[in-house]
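S., here's the first fold you wanted:
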Amino acid sequence: MTTTAAFGWGSSYLTAQPAGEVDLAPADRFAVQQTLARYAFALDHGDLSALEGVLTEDVTWTVTIAGAVEQGPFVGRAAVLDLVREATEAQTEQRRHNLVNMVFHRADADTTVVWAYLMLTSNAGGASSVIATGFYSFTLRRARSEWRIAKLLVGLDNAA
């Protein structure tokens, strides 16, 4: 699939969530960042148990490729885990989900929205390379004493 992202294509997805106050203690900010790091590590290692631990039961996951191709939403933890299981079983190379430039878009004591860039790398062919770039919009909810991902949108600039 060849889909080329135009400059700024993702802004319509990101601005659909209005900015707000970020009223979150430093310890909570760190806990949110750790949840997102655990999410990326779980994807990279096919660790469905760890992935399950960072998702809410009613999580929704949507993927868009340059705003032209949409997949999902996949609703519920079981549906997301099935999606990831199928995707990772088909992979023959090691991929790494590098989350960079994390921005707290809005936050309160129970919910936070974080935006981050994605740089997806692969070791296919024996050399590391960037195979896709894009962004995430994560909505996390506090579940007991932990932060869990309740909604995520992956916006890919190109098909991986």
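And the second, which I think is the more interesting of the pair:
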Amino acid sequence: MSQYTAFSERRPAWSEQLRSAGRRVTKQRLAVLDAIHTHPHSTAETILDVARRELPGLSAQSVYVVLGDLTELGMLRRFEPPQSPALYETRTGDNHHHAICTRCGRIEDVDCAVGHAPCLHPHWNDSQSPMTIQIADVLYQGICQDCLAAEHQDGS
């Protein structure tokens, strides 16, 4: 399947989401969505580079406007790992978490615990005003298998 075919299969659903939210379907919005979908957990700079393959004249300002708008609409998720600029993904609405390798920076999606989810039931002390938690944003940090293997290979 070519990259164009893969894009064209997603675009009708995205177009419908945009129209349902009262937004126009533009080349810029679709190019940004395509870029993020094919390069999840990307910075705005990476998204701009990828989207420019389709729209060479796309400006950085346009990408930032589209990112803000699509995030506000709930079509994109924005998250900020430590020591990193904001990252974007098209996987939304499922309260998943992220695991990041502290060596190479690789990021993996981690599904939320099914059943009892302690991350949604925090312990409140007497000086706090409890809230009804709707979403928990958990970031796991560790060392990925590739980095561990390389470390063992270098240490042998």
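Why I say that: DSSP finds five helices and five strands in the chain. The longest strand covers residues 97-101.

Talk tomorrow,
H.
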